[in-house]
Specification:
Number of helices: 4
Helix content: 25-40%
Order of helices and strands: HHHH
Structural class: mainly alpha
Number of strands: 0
Radius of gyration: 29 Å
Strand content: under 5%
Largest sheet: none
C-alpha cells in the first residue's frame, strides 16, 4: 500500500508527530504497519493498565474551610434575591 506525500504529512499532523521534509521522504507506511502488527502480537494479559505514565504519588490533604459564612457578600452583587438566598431570575419557560 503506498501513500502520497500529502497523505503522510496529514497523518503525521493528526498523530501530532513533527516530521521534517527529509524524514517525510524516508517514511514508509508499510514499515509502520509492520511495527503496529508486531506490537499487537505482544501478550498483555498479565499487564496491569496504567492510570498515568507519571510515577508521582498523589498528595492528599484534609478539606478545611478557609472562608466562613460569606453568603451576604456573594448575594450583595445580585440584582434581585429571592427568599432563602436564591438568585431570582425571570421566568423563561411558558406554561401551555
Amino acid at each position: 500500500m503506498s501513500f502520497s506525500k500529502a497523505s503522510l504529512k496529514k497523518f503525521a499532523e493528526l498523530s501530532r508527530i513533527a516530521l521534517t521534509e527529509e524524514e517525510l521522504e524516508k517514511l514508509n507506511m508499510d514499515d509502520l504497519e509492520a511495527i503496529a502488527k508486531s506490537i499487537n502480537k505482544i501478550d498483555t494479559a498479565n499487564v496491569k493498565p496504567m492510570i498515568s505514565p507519571a510515577v508521582i504519588p498523589q498528595r492528599f490533604r484534609e478539606d478545611t474551610v478557609t472562608e466562613g459564612d460569606c453568603l451576604e457578600a456573594l448575594m450583595s452583587n445580585a440584582p434581585d434575591v429571592g427568599n432563602n438566598a436564591y438568585f431570582a431570575v425571570p421566568k423563561m419557560i411558558e406554561e401551555e
